[in-house]
Amino acid sequence: MKNILLLFFLFLNVCVFASNKVDSLLKVLDVTIKQRSQYEQIRELRIDSLNIELNKINDPEERFGLYYKLLREYRSYNMDSALWIANERLEIAQKLNKKEHISTANMNVAEILGIMGMYKESLDIIDQIDGQKLDDRQRAYYFHLYHSIYTLMSENSFSKKEKTHYENLLSQYKDSLLLVNDPKSLGYALVWNGKLVEKGKYEEALALMSECYQKYGEDQSLVGTIAYGLSDVYRRMGDHEQEKKYLIISAIGDQRKAVKGYIALRKLAILLYQEGDVDRAYNYIKCAMEDAIFCKARFRTLEISQTLPIIVAAYDKKVKQEKENLIKYLFLISILSLVLVISVFYIYKQMKKLSAARKSINEMYEDVKRMNGDLNELNKKLSESNLVKEEYIGSVFNLCSTYIDKMEAYRIDINRKLKSGQIAEATKMTNSTSLVSDELKEFFRNFDAIFLNIYPNFVEEFNSLLLENEQILPKAGDILTPELRVFALVRLGIADSSKIASFLHYSPQTVYNYRLKVHNKLVVSKDEFAIAIQQIGK
């Protein structure tokens, strides 16, 4: 069961991904169609460049070759111009009186006539050419023309008998093309694909065309042809999603090459129409018709004209339906707007009452909030004060007990010396200041230890308020420096300098100097510093 569910989700993900891919390609095609005038300009520039070059050349042989380049540019762009160039080429060939040139030029004329739908005229010309007297390159072109014309005639035959006859001829010309084409060439692969499709070997045909797509897909001049071949294979296999994908790719390739006599966009429009995407189908078939008329490809125009009315009718019906729906929606919106205006007026009156009540409640809420804030701050201070008191009460009792023990030991020592007559020793002990100094150091150590026990991060937080190169750090063996000790008392709430001096046994001037020294090192203002000191450890 788990495997089935996993396969289902994998299939669903693949479908979603494929759908997203096709949608993205459609958007690219939409943009490309809008930009087709830019691609037309590129082709026109190439044509103009060739015409300029042609005007500079008088040698018939060179003009014959240059006319071929022009023919290639016009072949799928403007059929009337292509036919005129093909006839010019034939005229030059006849003047040169070269049989191979005359044969090639005649086949050029036949090719253009065939594309224009004039099959009889095209076949009449080709039939007059003796294929046995042609070289390999010309023979490949010769067979290609028969194959192209019979393909078109097969697609447009009215009876099954005619279609079968043309398909048999097509198969024969495919065999002929395979004999004369280079097996490593793309032309050979395309013809072989046709043979595989003819035999119903769609998997082999798909593999062959996929390989061609991988090999030549980056070439903008070839991608349209290969993608169209892939779409045809997928159509025969019944995979309409992949057929659509490659028709889109082929259509993009055609537009970017400024090809006007194409098939892919027309077939894509029909496919989208069948799927219900009438808007795109209409835009694509309209674009195809405009290009076919521009190209003067009369047969393509006829093909499109058979489909165009159906899609246009569907598009008009959709537009009409949307217009009717719009009128209905406008009527409904008008009614809703009227109801909305009345509702807004009523709500406005209620809101005024509600606003007054809310204002009164907000004032009460702010008062309560302020009182709660004051109460929380007071509780916080009381809690902190209680913590300090608890720590210090225990420490003071401990210090007092220690001092009592020391004083008792000192008394006993003095008393013992006096009883034993060691008056000079006793006098020396009472005259020495080292006792007070030692006790004061001990007192400072105890204070520092107790304070840092309550505020362990005091030194780091205090230094964060000073300039980076003015940090105050205790010396080795000390816990707090005198400056830190002064501000430790400030943190405990003793702000008066005289009280600090008395507590630490400093002079008031010394305390003042310490405080001034620190104030000169601050990265914040004095007022911000005073607030920040009280926030340390919270």
TrEMBL record:
Every DUF6377 domain range: 254-501
Record-linked InterPro entries: DUF6377, TPR-like_helical_dom_sf
Residue ranges of the TM segments: 326-348
Pfam families according to UniProt: DUF6377
Keywords: Membrane, Transmembrane, Transmembrane helix
Position of the signal peptide: none
Name of the protein in question: DUF6377 domain-containing protein
Species: Dysgonomonas alginatilytica
